[in-house]
Design goal:
heterodimer; A: mainly alpha; two-stranded antiparallel ribbon; 12 helices; B: 4-stranded antiparallel sheet; 14 helices; disordered C terminus
């Protein structure tokens, strides 16, 4: 009897509405959403406040670096002959206090949290400033690409006929170019620099957004609520902006999050080919390029920025997936 | 109104004033809507689809016209064609639609847009699709008010909430900020009606407003439409495939088949003396409560005709149990034997006209003698149908 009672009780407990509802809440926004969200927040925070944060100068080598070479055995790291007596100050640097952690290609230490690069610059500071470049290359280019491509797609999908033919022909031509080659060509013509790299990425992003927006617009433009709005006297521009756009924006945004990841990689690729930011400014791709030369002796110099880029790209992809999932759930509930 | 100092404001107000004067002048003169020989063809590669093929009728202010027919008979295209909603490159629209004396056929879209919402509005079939799923109900309601009637947002909101209340939505203030998916189907249709009525139209098209709804809600929605119509002295075109829906709600009923009006009469006259075999078949297809269970539905055999190549003679002839050679050869004109009652048939269903004996009417499954429905018999079939002989 007692057994059955407990079973009944546990069953009834399980069926309480609170449990069911809390289970649903977890399903809505789980770890898969919040972990990437936190990471992206940190990257964005770093990108925005890079100037203000108490960081070492990302573009200057550690002032001790030039003395470290003389002070230490570069292989073993043990202090060799003390060239400099205690209290020696050269150009404002306390040479006697310089440690082995200030060398180039240094491993992570309390002085340089993520070590230094081949020019003895602080990797962490460079990563944070590199985040700024990555966010500009990712978010800004995609935002502009979304605005231009989205408008093209919306107009093409709404008006159909000749407008669509012409716009989509242009978009198809743009799509036909191999992405990186087109970007390379644009940078080659306009010259090296972050702005030109961003222009290249934007140009490459436009056709993708035009296509995806058009495809979504097509499904909504024929819906009854568009007719309903027209019957109430709405103009075409109004129908596009207030009836169709709010429906189309969700799938397009979830695609945009994935596109940001692609754009970050694209900027990294251009930087790796020395076609993005100019020296000594930091970019993740350029940092990987910097570490490439010492990949065998000091792999962390290339791997740390690569890992940061990998995690950031992954997080944007995960966010995009989550966004799409939430969007789909909402769609199914209708 | 005349004290407006703003230039553009004065322009629009005088324009509106002129429009209103025009309407006032004609308030008592003539019907609100005159449709003459309206044709709407869709030009496809396979040929022209004659969705609406020469429809004429008049609709007086405050009256209801019920348009009845199977799916594909052109009733939805008719209502949209009257409004001028089906404008596309491949649509051929001929004839004449006079709204308050204004010709709508061939009118430019800008002028038409001024009429939409303010003068004529539409309630759609499926409130799931006719409301924008990602836009709050409130905004969908106030859109027309702020744009068409130049109201401020606050005025529009007040009016919209009053509108929601008048269509029977409880706690409209809360519903105002909700999304369509938070409402039930019946509630959504009420919102659809509130949106259509927001700008005070004089003519309402209700395109199968209850087809997508639960049977228990249908009567409520129809009653609501009727009540609103009466309060606002609004004319209504009620499109449906259900004769039962229009039976006691329409002043006049037009039965459509293959793009044509095949029978049109004041509601009472139509049910009192059905002349067109198609109307009769429609009536017979309504299941009766007194039928024993598992009674076969008296469906109309065959399918609606191909509207690209309609039958040469009467369009119903291939499915008509009484069809004769003449029916297959010659298209019958609209005949008006008694005033107001028009029908399109060479051999109308009537006691006074010789019709084939029951033996010559194949494929009709109904009670003996009901092929020629005399008045009392028909009334009985609708209101109190006789028990069906099962053999």
């Amino acid at each position: 009897m007692a057994d059955t009672n407990t079973i009944v009780q546990s069953v009834s407990n399980e069926a309480t509405p609170e449990l069911v509802s809390s289970g649903r809440k977890k399903k809505g926004l789980g770890f898969a959403f919040w972990i990437p969200a936190v990471w992206i927040f940190l990257v964005l925070f770093g990108a925005i406040f890079a100037n203000v944060l108490p960081l070492k100068d990302p573009n200057l080598p550690d002032p001790c670096a030039q003395y470290v070479v003389k002070k230490f055995n570069i292989i073993t790291g043990t202090e060799t002959t003390p060239h400099y007596p205690p209290g020696t100050v050269i150009d404002g640097v306390h040479v006697d206090k310089c440690t082995y952690a200030s060398r180039s290609n240094a491993t992570p230490s309390s002085k340089h949290w993520l070590g230094t690069d081949s020019s003895a610059r602080d990797t962490f500071a460079r990563l944070v400033f590199g985040a700024r470049v990555a966010m500009i290359a990712g978010v800004v280019t995609i935002a502009i690409g979304l605005a231009i491509g989205g408008t093209i797609g919306l107009i093409a999908g709404f008006y159909r006929k000749r407008v669509e033919t012409i716009l989509m022909a242009i978009v198809d031509i743009m799509l036909a170019f191999p992405t990186l080659v087109l970007a390379l060509a644009i940078v080659a013509v306009l010259g090296r620099g972050l702005t030109n790299a961003c222009i290249a990425i934007t140009v490459v992003a436009i056709p993708a957004f035009a296509r995806i927006t058009r495809a979504n617009t097509l499904t909504y433009a024929e819906r009854e609520f568009v007719t309903a709005s027209r019957v109430m006297g709405a103009k075409n521009s109004r129908i596009m902006s207030r009836e169709i756009l709010p429906n189309v924006i969700y799938p397009v945004i979830s695609f945009a999050l994935v596109a940001i990841a692609v754009a970050i990689v694209a900027e990294g690729s251009l930087a790796f080919l020395s076609l993005s930011v100019k020296d000594p400014n930091a970019s993740w791709g350029q940092m990987i390029l910097d570490g490439r030369g010492v990949i065998e002796d000091a792999p962390h110099v290339a791997l740390i920025p690569a890992a940061v880029m990998f995690i950031t790209v992954l997080c944007f992809n995960l966010m995009g997936d989550q966004f799409r999932r939430i969007f789909n759930v909402r769609d199914a509930a209708l | 109104m005349s004290t407006t100092t703003n230039g553009s404001g004065a322009d629009t107000s005088t324009e509106q004033g002129a429009l209103l004067d025009l309407i006032d002048d004609q308030k008592t003169a003539g019907p609100l809507l005159e449709v003459k020989d309206l044709k709407t063809y869709f030009d496809l590669e396979a040929g022209a689809v004659r969705a609406v093929d020469g429809v004429s009728f008049n609709l007086d202010r405050g009256k209801t016209l019920g348009v009845v027919g199977e799916s594909g008979s052109g009733k939805t295209v008719l209502s949209r064609s009257i409004m001028g909603l089906v404008i596309a490159a491949n649509v051929l629209r001929q004839g004449s639609v006079l709204y308050d004396g204004q010709e709508l056929v061939g009118q430019n879209p800008k002028r038409l847009r001024r009429l939409w919402g303010r003068e004529m509005a539409m309630v759609f079939q499926d409130p799931m699709t006719s409301l924008n799923p990602v836009v709050k109900i409130g905004r969908q309601l106030t859109e027309g008010l702020t744009k068409n009637l130049d109201m401020s947002k606050r005025e529009a909101k007040e009016l919209a909430i009053a509108g929601l209340r008048s269509v029977g939505i409880p706690s409209p203030e809360r519903r105002f900020d909700e999304y369509p998916h938070q409402l039930s189907g019946g509630m959504r249709q009420r919102v659809g009606i509130a949106i259509a009525l927001a700008c005070g139209p004089k003519l309402l098209f209700a395109d199968e407003p209850t087809t997508a709804l639960d049977v228990t809600v249908q009567a409520q929605i129809l009653d609501l439409l009727q009540q609103q119509q009466r309060e606002r002295f609004m004319a209504m075109i009620l499109v449906t495939h259900d004769l039962g829906v229009v039976a006691n709600r329409a002043d006049e009923i037009a039965v459509m088949y293959a793009g044509q009006v095949v029978e049109k009469a004041p509601a009472a006259d139509l049910f009192a003396a059905v002349r067109m075999p198609y109307t009769e078949a429609l009536l017979n297809s309504i299941p009766r409560l007194t039928d024993p269970s598992h009674t076969r539905l008296r469906a109309i055999g065959g399918r609606p005709p191909d509207l690209i190549h309609p039958p040469k003679g009467c369009r119903f002839s291939p499915r008509c149990p009484y069809a004769q050679d003449k029916c297959r050869e010659e298209m019958p004109p609209l005949i008006e034997e008694t005033p107001g009652h028009q029908f399109r048939c060479w051999f109308p269903v009537d006691v006074s006209v010789t019709v084939p004996t029951p033996a010559e009417r194949p494929a009709v499954d109904h009670d003996a003698g009901s092929g020629r429905l005399d008045e009392p018999a028909l009334k009985q079939t609708i209101l109190e149908p006789p028990a069906r002989k099962d053999d």
